[in-house]
Amino acid sequence: MALAIGGVVAALLAVYLNGGHLELAFPWDHHANAAFKVEKVTTSYSFAPYVSGFDLPDFVTSAPGDPDTLYVVEQPGTIRIVRNGKIAGTFLDIRSLVVSGGEQGLLSMAFSPHYASNHLFYVSYTNVDGNSRVVRYRSANGVGVRSSARILLGVNQPYANHNGGLLMFDKRGYLYFGLGDGGSGGDPQQHAQNMRSRLGKLLRSRSKSPGTRWKTVGLGLRNPWRFSFDSANDNLWVGDVGQDRYEEIDFRRASKLDKLANYGWSRYEGYALYDSSHRYANARAKVSPVIVYSHARGCSVTGGFVYRGKTVRAARGHYFYGDYCAGTVWSFRVGKHGRASAAVVSGHVPSLSSFGVDGNRELYATSLDGTLYRLR
Question: Which pLDDT score is estimated for 284?
């Protein structure tokens, strides 16, 4: 994993020679920006360290029926239990199944909405061959049972980057899975706009008991590293990592989740035309971003959540997102059609890998430096 200084990445992980061009590859697909200005927090709320001692944490969540326990996913292949502000044990250890480093590893988990009774949960990782897997497990006596594994989805990855990897249930009980475009740079094989490929897509389980059948509900995604559903209304928010110039946040109303959405890549990057020679599968399904920022302010967006907790009253109804490279966290008020106010700086989390919420809808953030942060 790259070294981080002040939340800005200062070490190069790898160099790929793809398609006759040299591409610099960093964790979470950030690019070779040397430094970013530390932007002043302008809100009354911000993020503060909560628990430290994790090994490359890249996601945090909670289980239905147990709102005060947190589960922190660690990239090398473990899930740690957090209670009362302390690491309380290990929920699952599948390190021997996972290849970890750069954008690969154990990337997320999701508990069944009926976990309190069925004890089922789902994980996403890149296996030892570098391919994406969605696997269902069962827990017993408060920990995951490794032998209960059932693979629900396998997607081969042509390159080591742009794996996506987030699993998330919507309010109706469908499980969603985000996949990047397969990697390299510029989507050379044009996966994102190819409906015959699962790369560059947002997939949804075809039933509320997730199995091996999946439906494509979004295409034109480059690397939807983190997305979420608003717990108040089920609206979808997607942070899609950009290529050379722009990062974007996309919005999809709950009433349109059953209809195919085209988020634009690799014809478009943000609002701008990226490559006019690339196919555009379904222009009628086009969804334009609600937020775009340039690589002058960051270089790898981390999508977040709409805050619906009770502890920080001033933050209620605001969507939070940030940038892995700059460590800046922004927020804006949400409305019926997406963003309803300007984005303002709302904190700093170095090496920001993810956001997550507990069962009380309180908001957290993970840093690859090893610390879990909490909104206060």
Answer: 85
